[in-house]
Fold ACT domain-containing protein ACR.
Amino acid sequence: MCLATQSDCPHGHRRERYPRLPRSMRDYIILDGGGEEEREDMLPYFDPEYENFSQRINPPRVCIDNSTCSDCTLVKVDSMNKNGILLEVVQVLSDLDLAISKAYITSDGGWFMDVFHVVDKQGQKVTDEKTIKHIEKALGPDSNLLGGAKGGSSPVGSVGMHSIGDHTAIELKGPDRTGLLSEVFAVLAELGCNVLAAEVWTHRARVACVVYVNDVASGQAVGDACRLSRIEHRLRLVLRGHTGGDGDGDDSPAHANFFSSGGAGSNTHVDRRLHQLMHADVDADDDDDGLDSHAIVSGEAGNVSAAEERPVVTVEHCEEKDYSVVNVKCRDRSKLLFDIVCTLTDMHYVVSHASVSSDGIYGIQELYIRRKDGRTLQKDEAGRVIKCLEAAISRRVSEGFTLELCGRDRVGLLSDVTRVLREHGLTVTRADVTTVGGQAINVFYVRDASGEPVDMKTIEGLRVQVGQTVMLNVKKVPSSPSSSSSAVAANAKTPRQPASGALSRTSFFSFGNLFAKLRA
């Protein structure tokens, strides 16, 4: 191509302001006498492949080590550092129901290196090939660990979303009361919505839940705007405790959001989303319903049982390394590290170093954190971190009984079951609901609405009413580590389901084994 730019080119070529070179080379050509329009192409050029170059030459690596320790499996992860990567790693392990007994975490200086000591639900090493392959796929070179998955989606943690198909996700938040869950499920059934999965948390007289539904007639997500508006209107009335009215008004504490399947909101990990929904209520708490942490440590608290259960959280400043150090000591349980890291991440703090260990029944965690701008916490920030972490840890603590139900799914099943619970004077403190292959798998954490111990006659009444159509397993949640769990078979003709392990106040039923059996 001729480089001449004059119209009297001796070769007869058409005029060119600059030769047709690659964009990156055009930036270095100086055009004499060119106007502003000619210099618009002179912006710096950045090759998009260069931005991911360091990730391609240093992909994340994961090693599953079953030979170093005799009583646990070591999961070693090293990768380039990025914001939120620790939460993603811990989320993968927590979704597989792996208990983290010890961990060493460092993510300073642009690199991320962690070692987790984990065991399965039976307290054994991780030897299941499917579980190992899942960890390698989720955290290894072919994972999206550095790709920036928005919202931290996880098919296992998202209440069985891998098996529920097209759906609409409904988020609800408001004041809790006895029978609320029954009313919510009754409204959804009345409006032609089939509940595919749900998770419900309650804490300090507040409730937050994420419910996945589809249309009963079509089996598809509810997409009609008018119908969604009608559903939202009815649910807001239920959350406010009204039996009538227009449901309008901005002063109500009720909250309802809708997301279609695949939307940004519905892809957020369900446990993380529930923490986010309840996080806004922390400021409203007077924090006078519990015991003072310092009184508990010094033994001045009157209620010894409550003192043992309350988490102790402190925040100190490390002058030498210029970090804020968060220390947590509480009764050890599953997903404890996830709840802590999730809360700190959503509060926009970065965990640079951490150590996790266990001392008998207690879990001990030490986390070195900074704000995203690199600064340490101010005094008022430290107080809020303590308050939010105490709330996040306490949300998974349940008392009373767990009711594990398994049976053929049908429209209105949840409405019927929760109605029976309400009629027997039981309030639901937590709920895990899902469907696999047409089977409804529901776990309800219940206690007496009056605060008194649950009468065994009430449990027998539940067995008679509910156990006729579904398999019901009732377990007592022990109030102390030495307490043992009790189970009642609800249907004599139905084989007893394998026990999911002794339940403590901080352990929760998992659908992992049941998923595998139903898929087989």
Observations:
- Residues 403 and 474 are 5 Å apart (CA to CA).
- DSSP finds 15 helices and 17 strands in the chain.
